[in-house]
């Protein structure tokens, strides 16, 4: 891959990227409640945003960009709606692939917001095309929607969705509206998070609990893996649960989710703090100061500092107003660019031995630049501690992990990686340490072990950029 021609975000772009946030609302001011929820979930996707509401007919708006850029002075009518923020891993980046997707059939209107990745999209699309269905996008969500409609037409809503679940492979956490009823649907593995709650105006479904907080709501509970929940003006009911071996994505805890979210009963901040404590136990260090890579390493650095009794300090400051992407033509300009995005606090790092903590390393370029920046500005030693095990394999379940060849940990020893990034020492938390820190045994560890919880269908593409 030609590094020089990428629009590369040098402080975050080399991290795995989540592809979507979903929200659904049933009650007064559905549009406003969904806007608040999508803003609280902006970290899960910044490429496009969309909302569809229903008041006897469907009202929909989608656009490229952040929620605040897409929705300026809009107000879509209706007491039910679904919303979506997208980061594309499947399909092209155009507006035609932005969520939510809406279909009109003899059933009425159905709209879907989907987070995840359908791994058998290709074969399902061909099968549905042979039945006469036409597709307007390259999105796996459209295939999922058509598959569900196809089964609902034969078996009715509940049995139709259940039949579709047995055909859909991969990951999906969805807010669905069918006319004036709202549904929450989570795949049987429970890869992606999905939670629902209530506020003064009605019921909300969202990818993370912080979205429920953002509308002053109270969490009712997580949607169970394999569960379909129906919400109407009278309340909610669980329609069915398809039981399966559960595999929650460990990266939701390590990196994607907001630290103030609670996912499947575990507070994300606490998990990251625990990872820092584990790192301090597994890779102790004689150093002067613990500093995080902002913002991703903060909670882990705090845990490391408290357990090791080495003082914590901010030592790197991120410029939150610099552009999200850069074209970086040469080495010097790359260093200049990182200076615009990230700078050091000289008094904290000069002549110090530093424990530098981050949540993960994918390609390693960013870490290498940060270490070089710290050393050029006077750090004596930089000891790197990483709050996840080495990433060695791609993701097929909705996370953009770059290509396998790009993983710095691919076929390399820890010592090889340490030399490559020019750290004085390097430690990744162990897989056992990761499991204990999350406190859940039923985890997907596919990108760490190359051993996936489900068979990957022939022709399925990993989530590469
Ligand atoms: S392969 Fe990795 S990123 Fe993908 S779902 Fe599994 S744990 Fe998450």
Quick tags:
Glutamine Phosphoribosylpyrophosphate, subunit 1, domain 1, 27 strands, binds iron/sulfur cluster, 7-stranded antiparallel beta sheet, alpha+beta, 6-stranded antiparallel beta sheet, elongated, 465 residues, Rossmann fold, disordered N terminus
Overview of the structural elements:
With 465 residues, this protein is α+β, with helices and mostly antiparallel strands. It is 30% helix and 28% strand. Strands 5-4-6-3-12-11-13 form a seven-stranded antiparallel beta sheet. A six-stranded antiparallel beta sheet has the order 7-8-9-10-14-15, covered by helices on one side. 54% of the residues are buried. Residues 191, 249-251, 395, 397, 399, 444-447 line the site of iron/sulfur cluster (SF4).
* Name given to the CATH architecture of the largest domain: 4-Layer Sandwich
Which consecutive residue ranges, at least 5 long each, have pLDDT under 50? 1-13, 324-329
- Assigned CATH superfamily of the largest domain: Aminohydrolase, N-terminal nucleophile (Ntn) domain
Structural class by secondary-structure content: alpha+beta
- Major pleated sheet: 7 strands, antiparallel
Helical proportion, percent range: 25-40%
- Rounded mean pLDDT score: 90
């Amino acid at each position: 891959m030609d590094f020089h021609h990428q629009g590369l975000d040098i402080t975050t772009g080399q991290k795995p990227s989540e592809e979507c946030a979903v929200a659904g609302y049933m009650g007064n001011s559905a549009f406003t409640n969904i806007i608040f929820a999508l803003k609280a979930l902006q970290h899960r996707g910044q490429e496009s945003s969309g909302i569809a509401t229903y008041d006897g007919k469907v009202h929909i708006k989608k656009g490229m960009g952040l929620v605040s850029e897409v929705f300026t002075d809009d107000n879509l009518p209706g007491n039910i709606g679904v919303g979506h923020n997208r980061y594309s891993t499947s399909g092209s980046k155009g507006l035609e692939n932005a969520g939510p997707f809406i279909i009109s059939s003899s059933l009425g209107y159905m709209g879907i917001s989907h987070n995840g990745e359908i791994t058998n999209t290709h074969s399902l699309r061909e099968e549905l095309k042979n039945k006469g269905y036409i597709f307007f996008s390259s999105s796996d969500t459209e295939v999922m929607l058509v598959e569900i409609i196809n089964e609902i037409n034969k078996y009715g809503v509940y049995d139709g969705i259940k039949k579709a679940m047995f055909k859909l492979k991969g990951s999906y956490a969805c807010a669905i509206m069918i006319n004036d009823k709202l549904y929450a649907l989570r795949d049987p593995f429970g890869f992606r998070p999905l939670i629902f709650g209530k506020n003064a105006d009605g019921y909300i479904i969202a990818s993370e609990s912080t979205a429920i907080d953002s509308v002053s709501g109270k969490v009712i509970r997580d949607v169970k893996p394999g569960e379909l929940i129906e919400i109407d003006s009278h309340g909610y009911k669980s329609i069915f649960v398809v039981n399966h071996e559960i595999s929650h994505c460990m990266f939701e805890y390590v990196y994607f989710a907001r630290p103030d979210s609670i996912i499947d009963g575990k507070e994300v901040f606490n998990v990251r703090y625990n990872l820092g404590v584990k790192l301090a136990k597994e890779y102790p260090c004689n150093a002067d100061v613990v500093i995080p890579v902002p913002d991703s390493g903060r909670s882990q650095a705090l845990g490391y500092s408290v357990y090791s009794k080495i003082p914590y300090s901010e030592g790197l400051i991120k410029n939150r107003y610099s552009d999200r992407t850069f074209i970086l033509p040469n080495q010097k300009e790359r260093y200049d660019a990182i200076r615009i995005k990230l700078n050091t606090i000289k008094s904290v790092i000069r002549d110090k031995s530093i424990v530098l903590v981050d949540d993960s390393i994918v390609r390693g370029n960013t870490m290498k630049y940060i270490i070089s920046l710290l050393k050029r500005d006077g750090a004596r030693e930089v000891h790197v501690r990483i709050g996840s095990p080495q990433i060695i394999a791609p993701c097929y379940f909705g996370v953009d992990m770059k290509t396998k060849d790009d993983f710095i940990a691919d076929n390399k020893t820890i010592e090889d990686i340490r030399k490559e990034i020019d750290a004085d020492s390097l430690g990744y938390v162990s897989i056992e340490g990761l499991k204990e820190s999350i406190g859940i045994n039923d985890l997907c560890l596919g990108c760490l072990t190359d051993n996936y919880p489900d068979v990957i269908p022939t022709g399925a593409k990993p989530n590469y950029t």
